[in-house]
Amino acid sequence: MSGASRVQGNIEVRLRWDPSPWNQPPHHLDIIATTYSADAPYGPPVYVVHSDSRSPDGTINMPRHSRTGQGFGYVEVMVLELDRLASSFARVVVGVAIHQNSGHKTFGDLSNAGVLVVEGYKELLADDFPEVAEATATKVATFTKDPSGSWQFHPTIQGFDSDPETFTAEMGGEPPVLEQ
């Protein structure tokens, strides 16, 4: 994956997956976004946005949600209006989690799963989750605000073995320290 790139305006995170076989419980995935303040960019999230919520100011919302994967193409969409986000925010982390209500499922258990992150017509990230096949959740994108106030996009495919609720607490944690 490439490094950071400058973004502005509306970002869409789109998610697709095939429905489960007719005799199996449905696969249910969710796009989740967590926001972090400039005072605590790696602290607890200021708020979390997912299928049952939106940001208090309406700058992050989900106009399309699926509990089954049924439909054509990308069946779940989250919109982030970074240019309207309050100046008190320094980071937004976006991930995807698989609900574990009907038994342990990983990205490798799903067919045709993938995520697409776009800014207008510009593709920022397209991924089919091969690196996180054994994971039940994955971080997909991190947006950070630089000192000038511009937003940067960082592709961040990183797998987790956790349910959606636990994942929201883990996904925005400190980056790993690389030894030299």
How would you portray this structure in words?
- With 180 residues, the chain is mostly beta strands.
- 4% of the residues lie in helices and 41% in strands.
- It contains 1 helix and 11 strands, in the order βββββββββββα.
- The chain has one helix at residues 164-170, and strands at 5-7, 10-16, 29-37, 47-49, 60-64, 76-81, 89-98, 114-119, 122-127, 137-145, 151-160.
- The chain has a 6-stranded antiparallel β-sheet, with helices on one face.
- The longest helix has 7 residues, at 164-170.
- It starts with a strand and ends in a 10-residue tail after the last helix.
- 34% of the residues are buried.
Task: State the share of residues found in helices, binned by percent.
Answer: under 10%
Q: How many helical stretches?
A: 1
Major beta sheet, strand line-up:
1-11-10-7-3-4
Arithmetic mean pLDDT: 91
- In total, the number of strands is 11
Poorly predicted runs: none
Gross morphology is globular
| Distance N to C terminus | 22 Å
Rg, please?
Answer: 16 Å
Strand content: 35-45%
| Classification by helices and strands | mainly beta
Helix and strand sequence: EEEEEEEEEEEH
Please describe the biggest sheet, giving its number of strands, its sense, and whether it closes into a barrel. 6 strands, antiparallel
